[in-house]
TrEMBL record:
GO terms for biological process: dUMP biosynthetic process; dUTP catabolic process. Keywords: Hydrolase, Magnesium, Metal-binding, Nucleotide metabolism. Its EC number is 3.6.1.23. Belongs to the dUTPase family. SUPFAM superfamilies: dUTPase-like (SSF51283). This is Deoxyuridine 5'-triphosphate nucleotidohydrolase.
Length: 159
């Protein structure tokens, strides 16, 4: 069924005393609100990495996208980056950039972003060389990645 993903739970581990369970604000909300687990200030025109004190186990066939909340975006606080790979097991952290000329203070338990689960496919990649403007007649399958993810995030898989 098209709704089968909703029967597999999003599993959340609270790793910090200040962590807040992600929740959808309404029955129709797509995103799960993510809150900071500590008091934090984002200076004017600066970027900060905000801790959530959460780890997640995403349902099979999904990845997480960390997105801005419109209430904060309207005040100049925007999420940067934000892909949570299915095999990521570290703490969820939110990269926030303040585009305003005023610093923003975030109290512990303030919702700062939203986690949106999206379906994904990761088929094998095949490559071929174009010759004289023609599509390739021969395709070569690229090897699948064999690296096993550690708990690191924020660019930790750049090889």
């Amino acid at each position: 069924s098209s709704d089968s993903c909703s029967t597999v739970p999003l599993r959340v581990v609270l790793t910090d005393a200040g962590a807040v369970m992600p929740r959808r604000a309404t029955a129709g909300s797509v995103g799960y609100d993510l809150a900071t687990c500590e008091d934090r200030t984002v200076e004017a025109f600066d970027t900060a990495i905000i801790r959530t004190g959460l780890r997640v186990m995403l349902p099979p066939g999904t990845y997480g996208r960390i997105a801005s909340r419109s209430s904060w975006a309207n005040r100049g606080l925007n999420v940067q980056g934000g892909v949570v790979d299915p095999d990521y097991t570290g703490e969820l952290r939110v990269i926030l950039h303040n585009t305003s000329d005023e610093k923003v203070h975030l109290s512990c338990a303030t919702s700062v972003a939203q986690l949106i689960l999206e379906r994904c496919v990761t088929p094998p990649v095949e490559v071929g060389r174009a010759r004289e403007g023609q599509l390739p007649g021969v395709w070569h399958r690229q090897p699948e990645p064999v690296a096993v993810r550690e708990t690191g995030g924020m660019g930790s898989t750049n090889m």
